[in-house]
């Protein structure tokens, strides 16, 4: 079964750092981009960007560029999302999702077909 | 970036009825690269439709998608109790990918 397993819920204080993970199984992990989607409490979905597990190439949404960092370790089929200094406004559920589609020169066209269950991040003093 | 506006915000229907959910884009979606996702409370989103009208693996044929340019629809026929959930459209023809604000399908 193709699946993405995310790390557990986190409670952090403002200013702390955090790295959450997303481990794939049941398919060729290095074949597909992995992306991150934020859902703030009671709100909709926001696409944050993607990382390619094979070479760790990244594409960020402008809204999240510079605020978070994507990475991957293909030896353990895992992608990561990290913050260097959390803010209360980072409180949300973060989903990882496999991206299916194709890349053409500098353009990319991917939809999300396999999703993790989400990691709840709570940032509060 | 492309703004997607879904309507209505809430749709109240009874099991057995049909639902039509709309998604309008602020500019034409490249090559109909539009997807629909279902999200039940406390769960992750689930892919229903991609490329405007292609059903994802395991999605019943009660779900269908259509549209082009700036106007897209998701039609759910013969509503089942498990269909009452939140639905989001998403365009992936232009980066950054964007989602609509969602339509809540509730039981009347």
What does this structure look like?
Chain A is mainly beta. Chain A has strands at 3-6, 10-12, 18-25, 33-39, 45-51, 58-60, 69-73, 78-83, 92-104, 107-115, 119-123. Chain A is 0% helix and 56% strand. In chain A, strand 5 (45-51) and strand 6 (58-60) form a beta hairpin. Chain A starts with a strand and ends with a strand. With 108 residues, chain B is an all-beta fold. Chain B is 0% helix and 49% strand. In chain B, the strands form 2 sheets. In chain B, strands 2, 4, 5, 6, 9, 10 and 11 form a 7-stranded mixed β-sheet that branches. In chain B, strands 1-3-8-7 form a 4-stranded antiparallel β-sheet, with no helix packed on it. In chain B, strand 4 (34-39) and strand 5 (46-50) form a beta hairpin. Chain A binds chain B through residues 37, 44-47, 49, 59, 61-63, 95, 97, 100-101, 107-113, 115-118, and chain B through 1, 30-31, 33, 35, 37, 39, 43-47, 50-51, 56-57, 88, 90, 92-93, 95-102.
Q: Keywords, please?
A:
heterodimer; A: 125 residues; mainly beta; 4-stranded antiparallel beta sheet; globular; B: 108 residues; 7-stranded mixed beta sheet
Q: Characterize the biggest β-sheet of chain B.
A: 7 strands, mixed
Q: Sum up the overall morphology of chain B in one term.
A: globular
Overall 3D shape of chain A: globular
Please report the total strand number of chain B as a whole number: 11
The string of secondary-structure elements of chain A, in order, is EEEEEEEEEEE
What composes the largest sheet of chain A? 7 strands, mixed
First-last Cα distance of chain B: 35 Å
Number of helices of chain A: 0
The residue ranges of chain A in which pLDDT falls below 50 over 5 or more consecutive positions are none
- Helix-strand string of chain B: EEEEEEEEEEE
Q: What oligomeric arrangement do these chains adopt?
A: heterodimer
Q: Rg of chain A, please? A: 14 Å
Q: Most extensive chain contact?
A: A-B, 25 and 28 residues
Helical content of chain A stands at under 10%
Number of strands of chain A: 11
Secondary structure category of chain B:
mainly beta
């Amino acid at each position: 079964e193709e699946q993405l397993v995310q790390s557990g819920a986190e409670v952090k204080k403002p200013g702390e750092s955090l790295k959450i993970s997303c481990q794939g199984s049941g398919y060729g992990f290095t074949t597909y981009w992995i992306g991150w989607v934020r859902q703030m409490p009671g709100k909709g979905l926001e696409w944050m960007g993607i990382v390619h597990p094979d070479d760790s190439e990244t594409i960020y949404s402008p809204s999240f560029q510079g605020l978070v960092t994507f990475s991957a370790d293909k030896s353990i089929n895992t992608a990561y999302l990290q913050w260097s200094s959390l803010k209360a406004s980072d409180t949300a559920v973060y989903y990882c999702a496999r991206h299916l589609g194709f890349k053409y020169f500098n353009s990319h066209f991917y939809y999300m077909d396999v999703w993790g269950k989400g990691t709840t991040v709570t940032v509060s003093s | 970036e492309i703004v997607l506006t879904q309507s209505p915000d809430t749709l109240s229907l009874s099991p057995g009825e049909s639902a039509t959910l709309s998604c309008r884009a602020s500019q034409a979606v490249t090559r109909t690269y539009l997807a629909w996702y279902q999200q039940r409370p406390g769960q992750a989103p689930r892919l229903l439709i991609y490329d405007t009208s292609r059903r994802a693996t395991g999605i019943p044929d009660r779900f269908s998608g259509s549209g082009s340019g700036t106007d897209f629809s998701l039609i759910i026929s013969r509503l089942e109790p498990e269909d009452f959930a939140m639905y989001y459209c998403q365009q992936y023809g232009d980066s950054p990918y964007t989602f609509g604000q969602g339509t809540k399908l509730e039981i009347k």
